[in-house]
Design a protein that fits this description.
This protein has 276 residues and is α/β, with parallel strands linked by helices. Helices cover 40% and strands 14% of the residues.
Length: 276
């Protein structure tokens, strides 16, 4: 097992040339945001925007939502109305997705994309309960990232969350092998594992991360790094570190750990990404 620290990060983003445009920095789309849970999708999309993705779309199932007033730079639409993503790209499916029939349909369509796909939250719960979706994940030709918390990991493995926690390295290895995916097992000392790679253990972060929306932000961070050309395993490792250190900086600034919100991580993550 290898610790994730600044001096062990497997990759960094290259400096941006003067002669560049937004198309040079990839595309991210987030599929989720069922009625009552739109905030989860918007948090993930905002994180991708703050972390440098060139074009960011929020594909929300709640058709009443057509704009994010806090970040009007996001392009908001129903998932069926999203345009094809310009490459390089990463699709995030799951934040606020829900488990209704429309959610399953959106997820099944997402599993067919031929570029990196990050599955989080309700996408994982739907996959855990549906053998056909599980096989779709396993059969994907493009890279897949799973970002479960212990409860979601347990449902995917047929275990309790307590059993997952008793053997976190074994759990992340099994998930990576079963789904042929890069797996990020969230929690204190988040673990990341690619199918052919070693287990990475995060050393950053604090109890302020035990708050709503933090996983959505992590999903958006990782997706933004992938969209900007970082290898998928490296993006998962770097994203986990960046997420944790952003929380540490927020606490140092007096914003937590009690009451730290997911939105408050975004400026710190952006600052780190431009300096680390």
């Amino acid at each position: 097992m290898r610790d994730i620290r600044l001096n062990t990060l497997p990759a960094r983003l290259s400096p941006r040339p003067l002669d560049c445009n937004k198309g040079d920095f990839g595309s991210v789309a987030v599929i989720g945001g069922a009625p009552g849970m739109v905030g989860a999708a918007l948090l993930a999309a905002r994180a991708a925007l703050f972390c440098g993705a060139g074009r960011v779309y929020a594909g929300v199932l709640d058709e009443r939502i057509g704009l994010d007033p806090a970040t009007p730079e996001l392009m908001v639409a129903h998932p069926a109305a999203l345009p094809p993503l310009a490459q390089p790209a990463c699709l995030v499916a799951g934040p606020g997705l829900g488990q209704a029939a429309a959610a399953r349909g959106a997820l099944a369509a997402s599993l067919n994309v031929e570029y990196p796909l990050l599955l989080d939250a309700d996408a994982l719960n739907l996959i855990a309960a549906d053998p056909a979706l599980r096989e779709q994940v396993r059969a994907r030709g493009a890279a897949t990232v799973l970002t479960p918390h212990p409860g979601e990991a347990g449902r995917l493995l047929g275990l309790s969350s307590a059993e997952v926690q008793r053997d976190r390295p074994g759990s992340v290895r099994r998930l990576s092998e079963i789904f042929h995916a890069v797996v990020v097992l969230k929690g204190a000392g988040t673990l990341a594992k690619a199918p052919e790679g070693e287990v990475w253990r995060n050393t950053s972060g604090n109890p302020g991360l035990a708050a709503p929306g933090m996983g959505d932000v992590l999903a958006g961070i990782i997706a933004a790094l992938i969209a900007q050309g970082m290898a998928v395993e490296a993006a998962a490792v770097y994203g986990v570190w960046l997420h944790g250190v952003a929380a540490d900086l927020a606490v140092k600034a007096g914003l937590g750990p009690r009451g730290l919100t997911a939105s408050e991580l975004l400026p710190h993550a952006r600052r780190l990404l431009n300096s680390a």
